[in-house]
Design a protein that fits this description.
With about 450 residues, this protein is mainly beta. Among the domains are: about 55 residues, no CATH class; about 180 residues, no CATH class. The chain contains five helices and 32 strands. The protein has a five-stranded mixed beta sheet with strand order 1-29-28-27-26, with no helix packed on it. The chain is globular. The relative contact order is 0.14. This is Exo-alpha-sialidase.
Length: about 450
C-alpha cells in the first residue's frame, strides 16, 4: 500500500464517497505511522498555494535553456526508443552506447564494472565503458546493487546476500545475509566507506505483511574490509518502521550521514572519529531532524567543496533540494510545478573540465501531470538547468553510474514502459561533450 499515492489520487479526483474513503485513508495512515507526514504534506501544499515559497524566494531557479523532452515524436514507427543515436540541446550531447548498463562503477585504474538490463544476473566489465563488455561473473539471481571501495574491493548485492570480490569480480564470497531475500542497499547511496576503511550498509526493501510493513531498518558495519559484519537495530528501537534510505560518508563534515524511511523520515549524523555524546542514542548517532516538517528521510545526497545537497522523498507531496554546510543550518529549495511532486531519487557529482557539476534525477509515476526531470547545476546551486523532461507514467530516466572522486563520466538510461517488465525497452546514453555555450 502506497499511502502517498492514495492521498494524491483522492485529492486529484474526489468522488461521491470521498468522506468514507478519506476516513479509511486516515485510519490507514494512522496504522502505518504517517500522520505527521500527512500534516507536513498539507502544510507544504498550503504554503505553495498561498505563494509563501514565492514570496520567500524558495523555489529552485531554472535557467532559460530549452530542455530535451521525451514525447511520442521521439520514438520511431517501429516502437524503438529515441531513434537518434544522439540527444542534443544547447551544446549538451548524449551519445547512445552499446552497453545497456543498469548500474555501473569505475575502478581506480579506469576499468568499468556493472550489470546490464539485458542480463540482470551477470556482472560485466569494460575497458572502454560504452562500446563493448565481457561477462565477468554470473549470479543465480539478479544484481540489485553494487559498491566499490578505494582499494577496488567490489561488493555485489543479489537476492538479499552481499558478496565480496578482491579480484575485480573474477570470484566472490558471501559476506553478509540481509534480513530478507528482497533486501538490498540503494545504489550510489546506501553503502559507504570511511577514511579508515570501515564500511557501512543501510538495508532497504519494502514488504507489506497484512496490515503493516516488515521492518528492515538495520544498519551494518565492518572494520575488516567487509569480511565480517555487525548488525545494529538502533533505528528500529528509535521507532523507524521500514528501511534505510541513505548511508554516506561526508568529507566536508567528517561524518557519516544516514536517513531513514518510511514513517519518520529523519536525518542522522555520526562524527566519524568522535566519541559519543551523552544525548546520542547509540554509537555516536545524533538526530538532526527531529520533526517531519523539517524534512528528512532523503533518498539521495551529493557533496561539493562548499556544501552537501540532499534530495527529498515525498511522493505525491512537495519535494525539496536541501543544502547544508555545517549540519546545523539547512537551506530548503522547492521543486516548482510540474516537478514538485517528484522525489529526487538520485544525485551524482561530476567533475568536468569547466568545474564541479551536480546532476539530479527526480521521478514520479503517479500522474502525467507530475512531470519528472533530469537536471544539473554548476554554479553552486544558484540555478539549475532542465536537461531532460519526461512523463514518469510512460518512461523512466535514471542516473546510471555512481559518483567517483574526480570522475567526469555520466551515464543515463532511458526506459520506455511496455505492458510488462519483459516488454520494457532500455537505451543508455553517455554525456559525450558540452559545447562552449552549454548550460552544464
Amino acid at each position: 500500500m502506497d499511502v502517498s499515492s492514495k492521498y494524491f489520487a483522492l485529492l486529484r479526483a474526489p468522488g461521491p464517497d470521498v468522506i468514507r474513503h478519506m476516513w479509511r485513508f486516515l485510519l490507514d495512515i494512522h496504522r502505518v505511522g504517517k500522520l505527521r507526514e500527512l500534516a507536513s504534506f498539507i502544510l507544504w501544499e498550503i504554503s505553495h498555494r498561498l505563494y509563501v515559497y514565492q514570496v520567500s524566494n524558495r523555489y529552485i531557479k531554472f535557467t532559460d535553456h530549452a530542455c530535451l523532452s521525451i514525447t511520442n515524436e521521439c520514438t520511431s514507427s517501429t516502437g524503438d526508443l529515441i531513434s537518434s543515436p544522439f540527444l542534443t540541446e544547447n551544446g549538451l550531447c548524449f551519445r547512445a552506447v552499446a552497453i545497456d548498463w543498469k548500474y555501473c562503477l569505475q575502478t581506480t585504474d579506469g576499468f568499468w564494472l556493472g550489470c546490464r538490463y539485458s542480463h540482470l544476473n551477470a556482472l560485466y566489465g569494460s575497458d572502454d565503458e560504452s562500446q563493448s563488455a565481457v561477462l565477468v561473473y554470473e549470479f543465480p539471481h539478479p544484481i540489485t546493487s553494487l559498491f566499490i571501495s578505494r582499494q577496488n574491493v567490489l561488493f555485489v548485492c543479489s537476492s538479499g546476500m552481499v558478496y565480496k570480490s578482491d579480484d575485480r569480480g573474477a570470484s566472490f564470497k558471501p559476506v553478509l545475509q540481509l534480513s530478507s531475500t528482497i533486501s538490498y542497499f540503494l545504489f550510489n547511496n546506501g553503502m559507504t566507506e570511511l577514511p579508515d576503511g570501515s564500511l557501512m550498509i543501510g538495508e532497504y526493501g519494502s514488504i507489506w505483511q497484512g496490515r503493516t510493513w516488515q521492518n528492515l531498518a538495520f544498519l551494518y558495519s565492518s572494520t575488516d574490509g567487509g569480511n565480517a559484519w555487525e548488525s545494529s537495530d538502533f533505528l528500529i528501537r528509535q521507532g523507524v518502521n521500514k528501511h534505510v534510505h541513505l548511508v554516506k560518508y561526508c568529507a566536508l563534515l567528517n561524518s557519516v550521514l544516514l536517513t531513514d524511511g518510511d514513517n519518520k523520515k529523519q536525518l542522522w549524523m555520526n562524527a566519524a572519529l568522535a566519541q559519543p555524546e551523552p544525548d546520542q542514542p547509540e554509537n555516536g548517532w545524533r538526530l538532526l531532524t527531529k520533526y517531519h516538517h523539517q524534512t528528512g528521510g532523503y533518498t539521495s545526497m551529493a557533496e561539493t567543496a562548499t556544501g552537501v545537497l540532499f534530495g527529498s522523498d515525498y511522493l505525491g507531496g512537495t519535494n525539496f533540494i536541501v543544502k547544508t554546510t555545517d549540519a546545523r543550518r539547512f537551506e530548503k529549495q522547492v521543486l516548482p510545478d510540474p516537478y514538485r511532486r517528484s522525489p529526487v531519487m538520485n544525485m551524482v557529482t561530476r567533475h568536468s573540465p569547466a568545474g564541479t557539476e551536480i546532476w539530479a534525477a527526480s521521478y514520479s509515476c503517479l500522474s502525467d501531470n507530475a512531470r519528472s526531470l533530469i537536471m544539473c547545476t554548476k554554479d553552486a546551486e544558484k540555478t539549475w538547468t532542465r536537461v531532460l523532461d519526461f512523463d514518469g507514467t510512460k518512461n523512466e530516466v535514471r542516473l546510471v553510474n555512481s559518483s567517483r572522486d574526480r570522475s567526469d563520466a555520466l551515464f543515463i538510461s532511458v526506459t520506455e514502459f511496455g505492458g510488462n517488465e519483459a516488454q520494457h525497452r532500455h537505451r543508455v546514453y553517455k554525456l559525450e561533450r558540452t559545447g562552449r555555450n552549454a548550460p552544464c
